[in-house]
Each structure stands twice: as structure tokens, then as C-alpha cells.
Amino acid sequence: MDINIEFLFNLPKVKVLDCSISDKEAHIYCESTHPYGLCPVCQKPTSEAMMYQERTIRDMTLLGRKVYLHLKTRQFHCTDCNRYCYKSFDFVNPVKQ
Ligand SMILES: [Zn+2]
Q1: Residue 48 scores a pLDDT above 70
Q2: What spacing in Å lies between the alpha carbon of 95 and ligand 1's midpoint?
Q3: Which of 6, 37, 39, 64 would you call most buried, defined as having the most Cβ atoms within 10 angstroms of its Cβ?
Q4: Distance from residue 58's CA to the centre of ligand 1 (Å)
Q5: How far is the CA of 49 from the centre of ligand 1 (A)?
Q6: How far is the CA of 77 from the centre of ligand 1 (A)?
Q7: Quick one: which of 55, 92, 95 has its CA closest to 75?
Q8: Residue 92 belongs to some domain of the structure
Q9: Is residue 97 situated within a structural domain?
Q10: Residue 97 above 50 pLDDT?
Q11: Residue 96 has pLDDT above 50, yes or no
Q12: For residue 50, is pLDDT > 80?
């Protein structure tokens, strides 16, 4: 199924990998296409990806279905500070769900 999620949810830099839709729920699996993250210490962009983390975001109800976004984000590593960071999204609540 071809869904333009960027248009639908106004999510920049997100690529849809898969989705499954049932009578009551829609699950959309997507991944961040951000090429880099910002180090929280030195604010330098770092593109050294170390691992992936999946977050599930219950975003809205669409046409009577609960919509869950499963977002895969990359964890980046700053070699200068030896710190890890995730690319954060404006639409993701900072409280871990
Ligand atoms: Zn740094």
C-alpha cells in the first residue's frame, strides 16, 4: 500500500516501511531518514549511527481507527564527547511511551 505519510501526518524525514490496517486499528511502521543527530554536549552533528530504537506513538484516530506510529530512530554517537544521542522529532512527546 502506498501511503504518503509525510503529507498525511505532516512528518518530515520519515519513510514508511510497512503498514497494517484492521477494522479498529492502523499500524504504520516507519523509519527516520535523518542523516545525522546533534550531540547534546557539543551540538556538533554526528552521523555515526550505532543502533536503532523503536518507539510507538499513538497519534490520533483516523476514520474511526486508532493510529499507531511505530517509529524507528537511529542512535548516534559523538566520538568527540563519547556521548550517545537520538534524533528527536518535534512531534514525539519527550516522555517515553
Ligand atoms: Zn559531542
Answers
A1: yes
A2: 23
A3: 37
A4: 32
A5: 14
A6: 8
A7: 55
A8: no
A9: no
A10: no
A11: no
A12: no
Confidence at 29, pLDDT banded by 50, 70, 90: very high
**Ligand 1 ion local residues (Cβ < 5 A):** 39, 41-42, 78, 80-81
CA torsion 41-43-47-51 (nearest 10°) is: 40
- Residue 25, pLDDT above cutoff 90: yes
**Angle formed at CA 68 by CA 65 and CA 49, multiple of 5 degrees:** 160
Which residues constitute the domain of residue 78?
A: 5-86
All three cell numbers of 8, joined, read 498525511
Tally of domains within the chain: 1
- Cα of 83 to ligand 1 centre, how many Å? 6
Residue with cell 518507539: 55
The one-letter amino acid code at 66 reads: K
